[in-house]
Structure formats: structure tokens, C-alpha cells
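dumping this here so i dont lose it
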């Protein structure tokens, strides 16, 4: 299939029209705007990556499993360390993105300078072409008017050929001769302007075709560069995913080494306080002082009353050394002294 090119499809029948050229320039301006949008997008993405990296780095410094021990503590330490490494990789990603943005900025500036020279040349040619075309059209009008004046003078002279007024005839002949000279001069100027316009047109045709080729080449370079830039951007993101997964895989391998039973036994051996439980609390009877290590608690009913001994015989009562006090432990305990 035949390729389409700018130089073959952006012409106009009107010599003074710049519609084709203006369409190409608009396309280039749209492409320039696209470059700026991609540039801004990548700058914003780099800023996001940088903020994320800094937040992730701050997070990796926070306490996580400080009081943990043994295999789980080692896994948590690896988890924090690899989180820090992930944050640093995102920071590097942000820097790589900014380097790509710098390349895009340089590319834009290079194309801008090249376009500027071509556009200045084309603008000058357009002005020259428009000016010469106007001059040519004005000379054409003058030429046509002079030709009509010559025809009118000739007709007047022919109508008065047989007149006896010699002065009138000479005057008409003089006007006809002057009109002829004027028409010939106008014809000469008109032809000269047409030739000049033809040369300017030829120069413009060459420059327009050349500008179309240059602009087409710039468009090809722009599309290729943007495509490769976005491709590189996606490769960077994919590489970041792979890097992050490799770092996370180190954490997963560490977690695989985490032994639950080993951690439990490690804690027991390190912090054990004894292997004998406390003895049960014995029950102590308030009244008897007896202790019972087991059994139900005592009843709250009052202790049974102790029978008193028989009343003493008054006849046998002497107050010398026979008086005594009974004790609680005595079977015949009594509050009455006898």
C-alpha cells in the first residue's frame, strides 16, 4: 500500500490560501501539547512515587514487634528491612522517571528550535506571495483599464476620420497614441508582475514541499519518541513490581522459617517461673482451730452449747485453794466461777 505524505495532500487551489500549511501547523501544535501533557503526567507520577517512598520509609522506622522474640521477631525484622528497601526502590523509580521527563523536555526544545526556523521562512514566503499576488492583480486591473481606454480612443478617432476639423483629428490621434503607449506599458508591468509572481510561487512550492517533509519527519520522531517514552515508563513500573516482589519474597521465606512451637518453647524456657502450682487454701475453723485442707466450707450455724457441770454443793464450798476456773477446752466449761 502506498504511503501517504504531507507534501502530497496539503495544497489549495487558491494561491494565497494557507489552509494546508495551517492544518499541518495545527497538527504540530497539538503534538506539542501532547508532549506537554505526557511530561506533566510523568512529573506527577514521579511526585507520587517520591511521596509514597518517603511515607513508606517513615513507616519502616516505626516500632513493629519490638517485644516479640525468637523466629517471629526475626521475620518481623526482615519485614521492616525489606519495607525500607521497597521504599528506596520507589525513590529510585521516581528519580528514573524524572530523568525520562528531562529527555522529553530536551526533545521538545530541539523540535521547537527546528520548527521556528522553518516557520519563519514560510511566514516570509507567505507574505511575499500575498503581496506579489495583490500587486499582480492590481497591475492586471490597470492593464485591462488601459486596454479599454485604448479601444475607446481608437473608436473616437475612427468615428472622426472624415471630419474637416484638423485640430480635432490631431487631438484624437494624439489621445489614441497615448492610450496605446499606456496600454503597452500596463501590459509590460502586468507581464513583469506575473513573471515575478511565478518565480515566487515556484520558490514557495519548493519551500512548502520541503517544510511538509520536515514537519512530517518531526511528527514521526515525536510519535516514536512518545511511544518509546511511555513504553520505558511502563517497563520501569514493571521492574518496580518485580523488585518489590523479590523483596517481599525474602519476607515470605523468613516467615516460612517462623516456627510457632519453637517460639512457644523459647518463651517458656526464657521466662518460666516454676513448675509447681500453689497448694489449695485450707479451711480453718474459728472455734476449734482445726484446719481442713479439703472439703466444703463450714456451716455458719452457731456451735452447739456445752452442757454445764452439776451445781456445786454449798456445804463443800471453801474459798481457800479449792476455787478454780474452767477452760474452753474443758468438757464441763462454764462461765460461772465455782
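and the seq i came up w/
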Amino acid at each position: 500500500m502506498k504511503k501517504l505524505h504531507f507534501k502530497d495532500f496539503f495544497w489549495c487551489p487558491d494561491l494565497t490560501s494557507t489552509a494546508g500549511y495551517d492544518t499541518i501547523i495545527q497538527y504540530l501544535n497539538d503534538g506539542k501539547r501532547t508532549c506537554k501533557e505526557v511530561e506533566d503526567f510523568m512529573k506527577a507520577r514521579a511526585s507520587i512515587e517520591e511521596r509514597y517512598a518517603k511515607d513508606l520509609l517513615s513507616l519502616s522506622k516505626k516500632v513493629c514487634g519490638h517485644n516479640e522474640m525468637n523466629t517471629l521477631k526475626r521475620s518481623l525484622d526482615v519485614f521492616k528491612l525489606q519495607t525500607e528497601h521497597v521504599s528506596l526502590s520507589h525513590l529510585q523509580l521516581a528519580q528514573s522517571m524524572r530523568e525520562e521527563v528531562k529527555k522529553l523536555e530536551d526533545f521538545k526544545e530541539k523540535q521547537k528550535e527546528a520548527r521556528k526556523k522553518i516557520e519563519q521562512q514560510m511566514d516570509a514566503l507567505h507574505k511575499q506571495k500575498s503581496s506579489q499576488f495583490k500587486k499582480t492583480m492590481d497591475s492586471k486591473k490597470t492593464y485591462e483599464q488601459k486596454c479599454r481606454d485604448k479601444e475607446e480612443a481608437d473608436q473616437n478617432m475612427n468615428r472622426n476620420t472624415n471630419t474637416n476639423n484638423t485640430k480635432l483629428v490631431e487631438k484624437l490621434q494624439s489621445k489614441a497614441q497615448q492610450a496605446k503607449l499606456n496600454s503597452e506599458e500596463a501590459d509590460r508591468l502586468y507581464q513583469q508582475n506575473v513573471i515575478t509572481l511565478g518565480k515566487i510561487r515556484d520558490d514557495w512550492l519548493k519551500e512548502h514541499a520541503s517544510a511538509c517533509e520536515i514537519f512530517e519527519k518531526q511528527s514521526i520522531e515525536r510519535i516514536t519518541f512518545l511511544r518509546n517514552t511511555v513504553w520505558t515508563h511502563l517497563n520501569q513500573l514493571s521492574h518496580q513490581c518485580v523488585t518489590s516482589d523479590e523483596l517481599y519474597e525474602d519476607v515470605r521465606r523468613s516467615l516460612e522459617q517462623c516456627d510457632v512451637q519453637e517460639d512457644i518453647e523459647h518463651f517458656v524456657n526464657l521466662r518460666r517461673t516454676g513448675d509447681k502450682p500453689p497448694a489449695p487454701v485450707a479451711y480453718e475453723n474459728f472455734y476449734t482451730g482445726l484446719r481442713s485442707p479439703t472439703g466444703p466450707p463450714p456451716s455458719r450455724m452457731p456451735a452447739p452449747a456445752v452442757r454445764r457441770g452439776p451445781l456445786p454443793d454449798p456445804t463443800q464450798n471453801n474459798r481457800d485453794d479449792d476455787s478454780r476456773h474452767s477452760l474452753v477446752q474443758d468438757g464441763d466449761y462454764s462461765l460461772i466461777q465455782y
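The chain is about 70% helix and 0% strand.
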